[in-house]
Design a protein that fits this description.
Layout: H1 2-11, E1 17-21, H2 28-35, E2 41-46, H3 49-63, E3 68-73, H4 82-93, H5 96-103, E4 126-131, H6 133-145, E5 151-154, E6 167-171, E7 174-178, E8 185-189, H7 190-194, H8 198-209, H9 211-224, H10 231-244, H11 248-253, H12 256-276, H13 285-295, E9 299-300, E10 303-304, H14 307-325, H15 335-341, H16 345-355, H17 364-372, H18 376-389, H19 392-400, H20 404-413, H21 427-439, H22 446-453, H23 456-464
Parallel strand pairs: 1-8, 2-3, 2-4, 4-5, 5-8
Antiparallel strand pairs: 6-7, 9-10
Helix pairs in contact: 1-12, 4-5, 4-6, 8-12, 8-14, 10-12, 13-14, 13-21, 14-20, 14-23, 15-18, 16-17
């Protein structure tokens, strides 16, 4: 494990220090002092993570003679929303009163993202993030706004965002990935992480499992020439991914070694994103189902559903789509017919406006399809490429992606959701999301290929048809 992480850090653009093991949090003051000599620290936690680790870290810093303050977000449940980025910006500015006002104002009006950047200054305290994915993303983006890095002490193996480039934040009704560097140091105390609530660890397993279909969709985008695979980013994760997903039972039991292996996989996923400078190595359609739920404020039994639990269903769904896709014979694709039927940009824009008209971000599909639209000549070339490389390319996809049954069994063994009903969705609800999933991000996906090849309806219908993987 140490050798893999050491090699991964060689390609990491942002993270320079990774410490993991029982009691690893004890080294936090030393790491901070080496990276930020003479600087002030502010421990950022929430009401759940402060008693778990935040208070301990605060006392360790104080005992080490490092000037330190704390800010505990007074919420048991919240998403990574822009208001909290503004709140943390105020904390790093030294204006705690403003931060509390923003935090406690349910009617807070989001400021323009372009106004968030400050001039770098050593007078700002350095954020020490103690928490899970939401706290980490808030610290990541706010630190970037202040022209500095930060240190992350994860409290659960729940997401891959600790080490990732970029922060996923809801801004003006749209879930967006904001470009910002990963932390300069990650300190993973396995005693704390293995003791996290089991559902958080299960969520992390699901987030890591998403890299299976996401990898297959990246292979498609690479073949189509839209987002070439970055070899370092691909190999650092995909070469070991199957191994790190091999003990879902140990993950469910909270076995420290299994959880440490899971956390390593999540860390490698984040480093892959650093190397690629995008989230392409880690997500595609699997995550877009989750984004829809986040943007519509979805709750089940009155509770927000975790990122990982939502992604579990998106991942399972995309494995079902791949099952049906890989039954097809694209070597006989009628490219001329597809190219002649290809709609204009204006027609696609109008389709997007209709699909998103009642969505919280009604222009989202319009904006994204405008970015990724290809003309008929390009579509013709793309379809010729996949027709001529089939079935050898299909064999490569089969070697990459898990079947629906295999993914379902793995998720179930890890105690992650393995049916839409596990998070309160019907299969019809899931089917209804497909038009938005296809359109809501500029990233080329399997559904884009299906649209180009004229088999989108056939593909989606087969997933939910009688006898299909997600039969309605």
């Amino acid at each position: 494990m140490e050798e893999r992480i050491s090699k991964a850090l060689e390609i990491a653009t942002d993270t320079k220090v990774f410490e993991m093991g029982p009691g690893a949090s004890a080294v936090a003051p030393e790491v901070f002092g080496n990276l930020f000599p003479g600087r002030k620290a502010v421990v950022i936690a929430d009401v759940n993570t402060w008693p778990v680790l935040g208070e301990k870290v605060f006392k360790l810093f104080r005992s080490a003679g490092i000037p330190v303050s704390e800010y505990v977000i007074d919420k048991k449940e919240f998403h990574a929303e822009w208001k909290y980025v503004e709140m943390l910006d105020a904390i790093l500015d030294g204006d705690t009163a403003k931060a509390r006002t923003i935090e406690n104002d349910p009617q807070h009006v989001e400021a323009d993202a372009e106004t968030a950047f400050r001039n770098p200054s050593e007078d700002y305290p350095v954020a020490v993030s103690v928490g899970s994915g939401v706290i980490n993303d808030l610290c990541k983006l706010s630190s970037y706004h202040h022209g500095q890095s930060y240190i992350s002490l994860p409290t659960a193996a729940s997401v891959d965002g600790y080490s990732s480039f970029g922060a996923s934040i809801s801004y003006r009704n749209s879930k967006q990935t904001f470009s910002c560097p990963a932390p300069v140091a990650i300190i993973a105390d396995i005693d704390v992480i293995a003791a996290a609530p089991k559902e958080m660890t299960a969520a992390g397993y699901a987030d890591l499992a998403a890299k299976i279909p996401a990898g297959a969709e990246w292979m498609i985008a690479d073949l189509m020439g839209t987002e070439p695979i970055v070899p370092e980013a691909w190999h650092v994760l995909q070469d070991v991914l199957d191994s790190q997903l091999s003990d879902p039972e140990g993950v469910a039991a909270g076995n420290p070694k299994a959880v440490a292996d899971l956390f390593e996989g999540l860390t490698l996923s984040g480093i892959a994103m650093q190397a690629a400078r995008s989230s392409r190595p880690a997500s595609c359609c699997d995550h877009l189902f989750s984004h829809i739920l986040d943007m519509t404020g979805y709750r089940f039994n009155g509770k927000l559903q975790s990122h990982g639990f939502q992604v579990a269903i998106g991942t399972l769904t995309m494995c079902a789509v791949f099952d049906e896709f890989l039954k097809m014979d694209l070597s006989s694709l009628d490219v001329d017919k597809c190219a002649e039927a290809w709609p204009s940009l204006e027609e696609e824009q109008q389709r997007a406006l209709g699909i998103f008209k009642d969505f919280p971000a009604p222009l989202l599909g319009y904006t994204e399809i405008t970015k990724k639209y290809d003309d008929a000549a390009t579509v013709r070339h793309q379809l010729e490429t996949i027709r001529d490389s089939w079935p050898s390319f299909r064999d490569r996809l089969r070697a990459q992606v898990y079947s629906f049954d295999k993914m379902k069994a793995r998720l179930k063994a890890a105690s992650a959701p393995c049916d839409p009903s596990d998070i309160g969705l019907s299969r019809q609800d899931l089917r209804n999301m497909f038009p938005k999933v296809q359109l809501m991000r500029f990233r080329f996906n399997l559904l884009d290929l299906a649209k180009r090849g004229g088999f989108y309806d056939t593909l989606v219908d087969s997933v939910f048809a009688p006898g299909g993987p997600l039969e309605i």
